[in-house]
Specification:
254 residues, mainly alpha, 15 helices
């Protein structure tokens, strides 16, 4: 869960100011902050941990931190509305918020069921659901076996994602996109080509595009493979308000 939050925070300053190199310093820039990716990640964790409606928790947390911005237009309308009907989105918001499903499920079948349940409330397009399922499943497989190669092969087989491009190849032409089908494979490639948690985040920033969300997705899977170094974990937690750290603490104590 903190992997997604960390990726979001580090990527927040690069979303509309892409930096297509891995050598940026410091890792946490002075203006780094949590965005909608973190808010939604915490909301889904809250729903799963405390047996709440995911619709209610997304709206509760989203409205509480409305000013943190970055909301997609349709999701913003959904947050503000009294209507909770899904809107057929294939956006990557489904994939960046789903990491808790990969950790709190005890079987692949449960992962898929949980990821679908928390996704289809908004992103009920097949690509939106597929993106969320793929990320949650990758987390589940990675934490179970800690093998990047096995997890990569499983994602390709189960979800028919083409993960043949390298990070260098993606970096050459990766325009800003918020579609699952244009960001989830790229984020996963950044993880499978990495050598550490930090390296996965740096890969994700370096390919440009929707930097905070790509880094959030990459970070969520990288955490399951590598864990998170304490110094990075502590920097991320310091950026969060108390109500969020309570959910984070509850999540890791679980």
């Amino acid at each position: 869960m903190l992997g997604a939050i960390t990726g979001d925070i580090i990527g927040s300053v690069f979303e509309f100011n892409n930096y297509k190199f891995k050598d940026f310093e410091p890792l946490f820039q002075p203006k780094c902050r949590f965005t909608d990716d973190t808010v939604c990640t915490v909301a889904i964790a809250d729903a799963l941990l405390n047996h709440k409606s995911p619709e209610d928790t997304l709206k509760e947390w989203g409205r509480r931190y409305w000013s943190n911005g970055g909301w997609g237009q349709k999701f913003a309308f959904w947050l503000a509305s009294s209507d909770s009907m899904p809107y057929n989105s294939w956006g990557n918001g489904s994939a960046m918020r789903v990491s808790a499903c990969g950790w709190l499920s005890s079987s692949y079948e449960e992962v898929i069921e949980s990821a679908t349940e928390v996704t289809e409330i908004t992103h009920n397009h097949p690509e939106g659901i597929k993106g969320a399922q793929a990320v949650a499943a990758a987390i589940f497989w990675a934490r179970s076996c800690r093998s990047k190669d096995w997890t990569k092969c499983s994602v390709m087989s189960e979800f028919d994602y083409d993960l043949s491009s390298t990070v260098d190849e993606i970096r050459v032409n990766n325009p800003h996109s918020e579609a699952c089908q244009k960001t989830v494979p790229e984020a996963l490639t950044c993880v499978f080509e990495s050598v550490s948690f930090e390296d996965a985040i740096r890969n994700a920033i370096s390919i440009g595009g929707d930097s905070d969300t790509i880094a959030a997705i990459a970070g969520s899977v990288a955490e399951a493979i590598y864990g998170i170094p304490d110094i990075i974990r502590n920097h991320s937690i310091e950026k969060l308000p108390e109500d969020m750290t309570k959910i984070v603490d509850q999540f890791y104590s679980r």
